[in-house]
User: Which sequence fits this backbone?
């Protein structure tokens, strides 16, 4: 089963955590770690301005959740990491 790693999926997952960061100030980031379907680790952070930061495989990719083009590029990079082509 291929998992869709869209910013929306992570945003929805982090929405529950957002309540806990409310008292941390406007620049607080909420971070959560998730495994890909293959078990590879992925971390996503989102700040109060809607900036997303994906960290995986020693690299990172960032976008603002309102920037569809940049977030699609991050999702594509994350998908390539989580679901490499079969040999």
Assistant:
């Amino acid at each position: 089963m291929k998992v869709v790693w869209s910013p929306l999926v992570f945003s929805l997952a982090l929405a529950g955590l957002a309540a806990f960061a409310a008292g941390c100030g406007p620049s607080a980031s909420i971070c959560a770690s998730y495994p890909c379907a293959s078990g590879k680790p992925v971390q996503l952070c989102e700040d109060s301005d809607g900036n997303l930061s994906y960290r995986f495989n020693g690299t990172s990719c960032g976008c603002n959740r309102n920037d569809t083009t940049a977030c699609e590029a991050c999702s594509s990079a994350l998908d390539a990491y989580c679901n490499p082509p079969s040999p």
Notes: The longest strand covers residues 29-35. The two ends are 18 Å apart (CA to CA). The chain has one domain: 7-16+28-82.
